[in-house]
Amino acid sequence: MSESQETLSNLLQETRRFPPPAELAESANVTAEAYERAAADRLGFWAEQADRLTWTKRWDDVLDWSNPPFAKWFVGGELNIAYNCVDRHVENGHGDRVAYHWEGEPGDARTLTYADLQKEVAKASNALLELGVRKGDRVAIYMPMIPELPISMLACARIGATHSVVFGGFSADALRTRIDDAAAKLVITADGGYRRGKPSALKPTVDEAVQSTPSVEKVLVVRRTGEPVAEHERDVWWHDVVERQNDTHTAEPHDSEHPLYILYTSGTTGKPKGILHTTGGYLTQVAYTHHAVFDLKPETDVYWCSADIGWVTGHSYIVYGPLANGATSVMYEGTPDTPHRGRWWEIIQKYKVSIFYTAPTAIRTFMKWGDDIPAQYDLSSLRVIGSVGEPINPEAYVWYREHIGASRCPVVDTWWQTETGAIMISPLPGVTAGKPGAAMRPLPGIAADVVDDQARPVPNGGGGFLTLQEPWPSMLRTIWGDDERYVKTYWSRFEGLYFAGDGAKKDEDGDIWLLGRVDDVMLVSGHNISTTEVESALVSHPKVAEAAVVGATDPVTGQAIVAFVIPRGSAGEDVEGEDFLKELRNHVAHTLGPIAKPRQIMIVPELPKTRSGKIMRRLLRDVAENRSVGDVTTLADSTVMNLISEKLPSAKSED
Ligand code: ATP
Ligand code: MG
């Protein structure tokens, strides 16, 4: 990184504070004392959290960091993840508790108690064994959001097969490269799932992918939609093979460092990386963070994370974290606007969801659709609401708090990555006085800091690179099959520190604000300006729902700020006029200072996003600099770039 990126400007000032509700603070799972206790004895603290799990053999050492950056946690310990997520709750008398309230997009529903889940996982485990899958083998999973997806993951974990879940929206080619990279022996899929009111086929994509994947021996297919599928010799139906299995299976223990899963990152910055997570440390941290950050009370809460299990958020906070804690969760198959734009709020009302976890991209979409939609539903069961995936703009936070959380629920903005495996920086809902837009502090047991380009912590009020300073239990162990890339990608920018790729600042109180990816930072007249702050300033205009900004080469200022803006539904007709663009530019200048005033603003109907909903700014940079658009293979909707390019002729600069 060039020297000019050694610090990042801190432009946005935010004075709103939301203290925790008294009732929540009084009964909180985790209180302020945990920070000090963890800081005094970090490894002792994590050992205590590992004791939330059931181990068949206790570990000898909490951490082996003798060969950095290759960590081993709970060395010598043994446990079974599926036993911890399912069987032990049944043994403890909670077999009748609902594990999943599953809601299909067409309106069909299924309830799985922990006792049901135990039987289903046992049958699936026996079926995997019959199909020749053994401990250490890899299994690719390409499925819609149906109960057989977590069941398959748990069955793999139970027998010690390493799963690689590939998001159901990926192409045959993307699936094939992921199957090949892991040399998967089995693929588990479905005929299809329901999306946007219709069956959406998956099996044809698998058929195409496995034409040239020599490692694949069998394809196990769940019937979900009943649409006709081509049948090949390698195919076996779930209802033929799994249903007839014995519904008991004895879980064998696995080493704490046994590979649990491989998962590819979202691909916002480029080629996805196959991140490897292991067993004991991973489950320890996902269980602890789910308990701490969401204040989960398993007897009374109904928890819903709206992510897709194809992403890490779904792995950690739909499957492993909630189940390890014995939670009751909602799982939903479809899209938020099928059959109507109130579907999610209807689900919250129906199941009396008390904890809700979603992404800024969804929140901004709901802002765009209008306040009147959630207002039609009873959301009074909610008590904690969370956000993950991108920086949450202060205005989106405040909208979420007000229109979904009834100005009562704390918002937890959780920063983490596929690589970190679990939440790292977040408010604690019973402790933290939240600031809209801030991820606040590293969780107890986590050491993170914002540093300058010499790895020196920046003072309060300063911005720079977000680094992790100590190993953590759910950290990635490597990039699958590529230790060298692991070292180079994450551990070589700063000696001894993990560098996450994100920019951040510490405010006057030392609280952390994420500022977007350092690759996206704009250098304007010698100032490093973060995309996040300018986007947040735009979103704070009452007529703006969503914004993305990039730096484009400029003869005068080095780089100039170019903004792409989606207006709110309520914004009215004249959002394309020159007056409105001028108003927006002045609004940014007024909010952040003249240095941050965009040179150019384009009103667009959509923004380019990854399949996990993150804005891909590098493609917008290509547009802003009149280049042909770069690699779009991880883009969710390839037509979006055409829609934006069509806007270009009108994209002249003002002033
Ligand atoms: P790739 O690494 O392939 O480019 P990706 O980084 O988008 O893909 P993920 O691991 O899904 O893949 O996303 C992690 C990133 O998401 C973080 O590095 C950060 O940029 C962003 N992020 C996640 N949560 C937050 C948050 N609460 N605030 C700000 N940014 C967040
Ligand atoms: Mg990343």
Automatic annotation (TrEMBL):
Acetyl-coenzyme A synthetase N-terminal domain residues are 32-85
Originating organism: Actinomadura harenae
The entry's family comment says:
Belongs to the ATP-dependent AMP-binding enzyme family.
Q: Please give one Gene Ontology molecular function term for this protein.
A: ATP binding
Give the gene name. acs
Where is Mg(2+) bound in this sequence? V539, H541, V544
Q: Which HAMAP family match?
A: Ac_CoA_synth
The name this protein goes by in its record: Acetyl-coenzyme A synthetase
Where is the PTM N6-acetyllysine found along the chain?
K614
Give me the residues that bind CoA, please. R195, R196, G197, K198, T313, S525
Any one of the GO CC terms: cytosol
**Catalytic activity of the protein:** acetate + ATP + CoA = acetyl-CoA + AMP + diphosphate
PTM section of the record: Acetylated. Deacetylation by the SIR2-homolog deacetylase activates the enzyme.
Q: Outline what the protein does.
A: Catalyzes the conversion of acetate into acetyl-CoA (AcCoA), an essential intermediate at the junction of anabolic and catabolic pathways. AcsA undergoes a two-step reaction. In the first half reaction, AcsA combines acetate with ATP to form acetyl-adenylate (AcAMP) intermediate. In the second half reaction, it can then transfer the acetyl group from AcAMP to the sulfhydryl group of CoA, forming the product AcCoA.
Q: Where is the AMP-dependent synthetase/ligase domain?
A: 92-471
According to the UniProt record, where is the region Disordered? 1-20
Keywords attached to this entry: Acetylation, ATP-binding, Ligase, Magnesium, Metal-binding, Nucleotide-binding
UniProt record, GO biological process: acetyl-CoA biosynthetic process from acetate
Where the record annotates domain AMP-binding enzyme C-terminal, the positions are 533-614
Q: What is its EC number?
A: 6.2.1.1
- Transmembrane stretches, by residue range? none
> What is the required cofactor set for this protein?
Mg(2+)
